[in-house]
UniProtKB/TrEMBL annotation, chains A, B:
InterPro entries: Globin-like_sf (IPR009050), Globin-sensor_dom (IPR044398), Globin/Proto (IPR012292). Gene3D superfamilies: Globins (1.10.490.10). This is Protogloblin ApPgb. One of its GO terms (molecular function) is oxygen binding. It comes from the Bacteria. Residues 25-198 form the Globin-sensor domain. It comes from Bradyrhizobium australiense.
Amino acid sequence: MDAPQTEIPGYDYGTGKVAKLPISMAEWEELKKSALFSEEDAIYLRLSEDVLAEQVDDLLQVWRGVIFDHPHLRAYDEDPMTHEVDSKYAQAVARRFGRWIIDTARAKYDQAWLDYQYEIGLRHHRSKKNKIDKGHTLGHIRARDLLAFCATIVVPMKPFLAKKGHPPEVVSRMYDAWWKSMILQATLWMRPYIREGDF
Amino acid sequence: MDAPQTEIPGYDYGTGKVAKLPISMAEWEELKKSALFSEEDAIYLRLSEDVLAEQVDDLLQVWRGVIFDHPHLRAYDEDPMTHEVDSKYAQAVARRFGRWIIDTARAKYDQAWLDYQYEIGLRHHRSKKNKIDKGHTLGHIRARDLLAFCATIVVPMKPFLAKKGHPPEVVSRMYDAWWKSMILQATLWMRPYIREGDF
Ligand code: HEM
Ligand code: HEM
């Protein structure tokens, strides 16, 4: 299958190990329209890969900083009995999270990508959280935190997007494209959380 | 009750007619943190009221333009039998939608506001869609369109936020505050869509 080959454990993009997203390619095309996502946005996302590739660790640090600052978010990386962070788990997840920045920037929207979005949703949801890395943490990330966190992902990206000296107008376009992609992905990730027939 | 007094039909903000949001004020405080929403964001939202108040109709036109451009979105304003737009319904909704711009800008987060967020969610969901205005339209807005549409609301606002000549840095702060508020509200609106225990 034409999908990323990496050595990251648990990164099952493009493999038969991930569930199939129960929405079609045609429905995905429709969904992009609901978010005003156009081919131009894909172009600005792709432009961002080069800008972000060398800043992956810095971005992860910003986001993990927010998580560790807030008990209700940190809990998702902690053993609920001991309140100790499961750091093996957190590190395994971080590698895939870093890779996600690149995948988002590449904006290659084929069936393998769609299916992996569903898988990412399942891995936040009680269906599959902890399963991939045999974690010992809280077993479910609430829909509310997953959605609200979109802002924590995208807003702090602006200065990083500006780091390579692109004109403000271009940075702004990259930033908006990231917002659109983030909201579209979070929408797909919600699939396991939504009541039958309501998605 | 200390809530907006208007003559807009069906605008039941602050009245006993709306359902109570089943999350507490303390949980709302927590949720704001998941979105990095701070008191500074509230200040920039409030600054935007003056900028947007005289552009409400223009904004509504932009958003409705997107809806009417896309059959899968227009369907939500159409009679599913005849595919005719229920224009009495659409007009009644538009008045409340316009008022929502002002309410979002005011950022007054008390119990009445929280409860009305729940009500707005219910009015998109099959629980209450069509009920308020006795509409004859499709009975449910899909979670996916409601979430994805956040981008259609916020991204086109940027030039409107700039209309009163604020410096780009200030416009940018207003824009980010709108994004955060939008994602937080969409999160609350999802409550009726989410499986028991998953929210
Ligand atoms: C909308 C913003 C979010 C983004 C972009 C995001 C991104 C990701 C990605 C890319 C992965 C790895 C998926 C894979 O296995 O390849 C992941 C997993 C994970 N994320 Fe998130 N995430 C978000 C929200 C959150 C929040 C709010 C939390 C909690 C603080 C969180 C905690 C986790 C955990 C614990 C895992 C591992 C799940 C498991 O496999 O056991 N994420 N996230
Ligand atoms: C996230 C973006 C959205 C925002 C900010 C938004 C905002 C609003 C507001 C403020 C109301 C009036 C609530 C009240 O009664 O006071 C409303 C109702 C409504 N919205 Fe949305 N909306 C969004 C997404 C959508 C989408 C994607 C559609 C479909 C194209 C849609 C169609 C409607 C309809 C048909 C109603 C009337 C529901 C009823 O009471 O029967 N909205 N919306």
